[in-house]
Design a protein that fits this description.
The complex is a heterodimer of chains A (about 475) and B (about 230). With about 475 residues, chain A is an alpha+beta fold. Chain A has helices at about 15-20, 40-45, 55-60, 70-85, 115-130, 140-150, 160-165, 175-185, 190-195, 200-205, 210-220, 245-270, 300-310, 350-360; strands at about 5-10, 25-30, 35-40, 65-70, 95, 100-105, 135-140, 235-245, 270-280, 285-295, 320-330, 365-370, 380-385, 400-410, 420-430, 440-445, 450-455, 465-470. Chain B has about 230 residues and is α/β, with parallel strands linked by helices. Classes of the chains: A alpha+beta (about 475), B alpha/beta (about 230).
């Protein structure tokens, strides 16, 4: 089972996923019985706390310590979320509970142009994730795991991995505590000391389990991992252990969900058109719909749209959790973007439109199109942004570019004096069938300063301005 | 130190040099006289053009019509126009209505935000915005956004804003004219050149094969008078 594997070890995952945005605050995770600390973040460790310490002692040392409960179900969900995220590097991802992920890299090396480029890519993306992570490659899945727990390593060849494995301290191996004590008693301190011994002797003294483990480690026995299958739908929840009242703090958690979403969308080769974001509150929830005109994958794009949407929102109550789901998605069509006519474009047009819609509301953006009707106010209508406009025949007559939303009454005396009529009348009689009859004589008039307007006369002699030749 | 030395060092700025300064290729405005007034290059992408006029009806849209009719691929944004852009007339004038996007914002803040986003995005062929009195900084922001995204922005404001300083690269003052299809344009400010005094432009288009572009191309020209009440 030789190949190339990558193990990502997230030592502080449950803590960081739930923890506050500000990592400078000391926080610790309790074990299942809530008597001892299971994990401490860097700030807590700097203050002298360490895993295994009693809660009472820890609180004495750091009174403002944030204590978080261990939630195994939640931790499993978070790991799945990370597996979705890591789908961008490899299609074969395996969950390694509690806090690890195993990725098969051998088949991806050509796509990413070599290990060093891929490694660099992974490290950059990990930084974006803002989670503590130790990563290591291995020629077998187990070797990758052992090396990650020993502090990380990166190499391409099996020989290099075997070389590095020699120096792993036995204390760091995930073996029986009793067995480790035995090794210590025998004077073995490194994995290399064990590997140098004859296998039969080891099996005789320590049981076949150890030799099997060593064979899996070195690659002499196959060790196929169980791969993670990507769920068909995306609906994830992220509990916030703090009551959040400010939008910025929500965005921090939201970003994590969106990064998972991006992995999900990439894996399914589709893009999301509409998301539903639920802000979970102590009583009830607030639901938001966020849409993108053409659909997008990128977490950054969605984050910006969500931010614009959230800025318009008034939080009814503090938020204690986020839930994100995809309500509408579509397959990616290749060749949608225009390569040539948008030489300077930084954004896709759809992105701009989505951004405007998010801030101003969907009704605020529209197109106009002509309609078949003689009445000027009914010969145009609003049209939605998407799709081509239906072809309409050209209307008769000379029409102004500006139409007043409501005709403006003119003083009859000025027509013919200050307003000189240049052209007309054009009689429009229509609409007797739908309760909006018009019977008007339209003229083009020139105002004293030279402006040209479109005005009409009602049968009763009243004059109205209806448009400007802009 | 002699004058030649100063000139060599670039310490003295010569107005005559700027006129010959090569400008980036612009988009023709469709009116030869106006192109000449805009340094012979037409509209420059990456610049903000402030257009001052008092009320609609003087030819402010016909001035931009060639540009609007030429944008068939990219969006043209109209942010808060004062009246309804009348679709049948625009269509008859050759404007691609499927690329014309109207934006109605609720407040001045949103309007400015919207213009800035559109200019910055660089994916619109022109962005038209109707603004009243806005702070100087707002115009500067828009100008910076236009430069960033290489967008072309037109900001329409009343002539009362004429005395206010403005960061826009071009400032045009429009005044209506009595004769049909003409418009008086004064260039109050332009990039790499001196202001130009009032000139009367013809808005009639050379290749205007379509109707409704010209007000004098149909029966009932200025010479024909119609009596009121007739």
């Amino acid at each position: 089972m030789n190949g190339l594997w990558l193990y990502l070890h997230f030592p502080l995952l449950p803590l960081e996923m739930q923890g506050p945005a500000d990592t400078r605050e000391p926080a610790a995770l309790l074990d299942e019985r809530a008597s001892r600390l299971e994990l401490c973040n860097a700030a807590a460790q700097a203050r002298g706390l360490e895993p295994g310490m009693a809660v009472a002692l820890a609180l004495n040392l750091v009174p403002e310590l944030h204590l978080l409960q261990m939630d195994t179900k939640q931790a499993a969900q978070q790991l799945e979320g990370l597996a979705l995220w890591s789908g961008r590097f490899s299609a074969r991802v395996s969950l390694q509970p509690p806090w690890g992920l195993l990725l098969e890299l051998e088949s991806m090396l050509r796509y990413f142009q070599g290990l060093s480029a891929l490694w660099e890519n992974i490290q950059t993306q990990l930084q974006v994730l803002e989670l503590t992570c130790i990563s290591a490659t291995g020629h077998t899945p187990l070797a990758a795991r052992v090396l990650a727990l020993d502090g990380g390593f990166c190499a391409a060849q099996a020989a290099e991995h075997l070389q590095r494995l020699q120096s792993v301290p036995i204390e760091r191996l995930e073996l029986d505590t009793k067995m480790r004590a035995q090794f210590r008693g025998l004077g073995f301190s490194r994995l290399g000391d064990l590997l140098a011994l004859p296998a039969t002797e080891l099996a005789h003294r320590f049981g076949a389990g150890l030799t099997a483990w060593l064979d899996r480690l070195t690659g002499q026995r196959p060790d196929p991992p169980r791969y993670f299958t990507i769920p068909a739908t995306f609906l994830r929840e992220l509990p916030l252990n703090y009551e959040v009242e400010r939008i910025e703090a929500l965005l921090f958690g939201l970003r994590r969900l969106l990064i998972q979403l991006e992995g999900f969308l990439r894996a399914h080769y589709c893009c999301a058109v509409r998301l539903q974001l639920d802000l979970l509150q102590k009583q009830g929830l607030q639901t938001l719909q966020v849409g993108h005109a053409q659909g997008a994958q990128s977490a950054e794009v969605w984050l910006e749209l969500c931010r614009l949407r959230l800025e318009r929102l008034k939080l009814a109550q503090p938020v204690i959790g986020l839930r994100l789901g995809v309500t509408e998605c579509r397959d990616i069509e290749s060749g949608v973007e225009d390569l040539f006519s948008t030489a300077h474009a930084q954004d896709a047009p759809a992105q701009l439109l989505s951004r405007l819609q998010m801030r101003l509301g969907e009704q605020a953006l529209y197109r106009v199109m002509p309609c078949v009707d003689y009445r000027p106010e009914r010969s145009w209508r609003r049209a939605s942004l998407n799709g081509p406009l239906p072809v309409q025949p050209d209307a008769a007559g000379l029409r102004p570019f500006w139409l007043l939303s409501a005709p403006e009454r003119l003083c009859p005396n000025i027509v013919g004096r200050t307003i000189e009529l240049l052209q007309g009348p054009e009689r429009i009689v229509s609409g007797w069938w739908d309760q909006h009859p018009v019977r008007r004589d339209y003229y083009i008039g020139r105002w004293a300063d030279g402006r040209r307007g479109w005005l009409y006369r009602e049968p009763d002699g009243g004059w109205y301005l209806h448009g400007w030749f802009g | 130190m002699s004058l030649e030395q100063l000139l060599e060092q670039g310490a003295v700025w010569r107005a005559s040099d700027t006129l010959s300064e090569p400008c980036a290729a612009g988009l023709s405005s469709g009116h030869d006289e106006l192109d000449l007034m805009l340094n012979g290059q037409g509209w420059q992408p990456g610049s903000l053009v402030e257009v001052l006029y008092d009320t609609e009806g003087c030819g402010e849209l016909r001035l931009l019509l060639p540009l609007l009719a030429a944008s068939r691929e990219r969006w043209v944004l109209w942010v808060d126009p004062p009246h309804i852009p009348y679709a049948p007339a625009l269509k008859a004038a050759g404007v691609a209505l499927d690329r014309l996007l109207l934006v109605r914002s609720n407040s001045r803040r949103d309007r400015l935000w919207c213009l800035e986003q559109a200019l910055k995005s660089g994916c619109c062929s022109a962005v038209l915005g109707w603004l009243g009195d806005v702070p100087q900084q707002a115009l500067r922001r828009l100008q910076v956004a236009a430069t960033q995204g290489q967008g072309l922005g037109f900001i329409f404001r009343p002539t009362a804003c004429r005395e206010q300083p403005s960061a826009a690269s071009y400032r045009l003052l429009l005044e209506p004219e009595q004769a049909a299809d003409t418009l008086a344009v004064s260039v109050l400010k332009r990039r790499g050149g001196w202001p130009l005094s009032r000139r009367v432009l013809s808005l009639r288009q050379k290749h205007a094969g379509r109707r409704a572009v010209s007000l004098s191309s149909l029966p009932g020209t200025a010479s024909v008078r119609v009596r009121a009440g007739g």
